[in-house]
Amino acid sequence: MPIKIGKVSILCLNFDFFKKGCGSRGLVYSISNRIISMVERIGLEEPVCITGGVAKNFAVVRALEELLSVKIYVPEEPQITGALGAALLA
């Protein structure tokens, strides 16, 4: 069972916390729930693609797919897609 973590947190956790398997899963679901709260404000249309550095976190992508019940596509280099789009528009 993941531990619920606030919407925005800075954490200093000891090794035992992560060793039990609760910490990392709790962080993944905390990040995912924060993203979902933003999605709920703007709506969701399929197909769904995630960009930015967090898209490289496989666990977050899978948690989002589970919680949103959608397939999420991740570009090969998700952290630079915004920059590429801006360059194309310039």
Structure overview:
It is a single chain. The chain is mostly helical. It has one domain (16-89): ATPase, nucleotide binding domain (Nucleotidyltransferase, domain 5). Helices cover 51% and strands 4% of the residues. It has 4 helices and 2 strands; from the N terminus they run ααβαβα. Strands 1-2 form a two-stranded parallel sheet. Strand 1, helix 3 (58-68) and strand 2 (72-73) form a beta-alpha-beta unit. Helix 2 (22-42) crosses helix 3. Mean pLDDT is 79; it is low at 7-18.
Identify the strand order in the major beta sheet. 1-2
Number of helices: 4
Please indicate the percent range of residues in DSSP E strands (runs of 2 or more). Answer: under 5%
Termini Cα gap = 47 Å
Oligomer: single chain
Number of domains: 1
> What is the CATH homology-level superfamily?
ATPase, nucleotide binding domain
Features:
single chain, 90 residues, mainly alpha, Nucleotidyltransferase, domain 5, 2 strands
Compact description:
The protein is mainly alpha-helical and 90 residues long.
Topology:
Elements: H1 15-19, H2 22-42, E1 48-49, H3 58-68, E2 72-73, H4 81-89
Parallel strand pairs: 1-2
Helix pairs in contact: 2-3
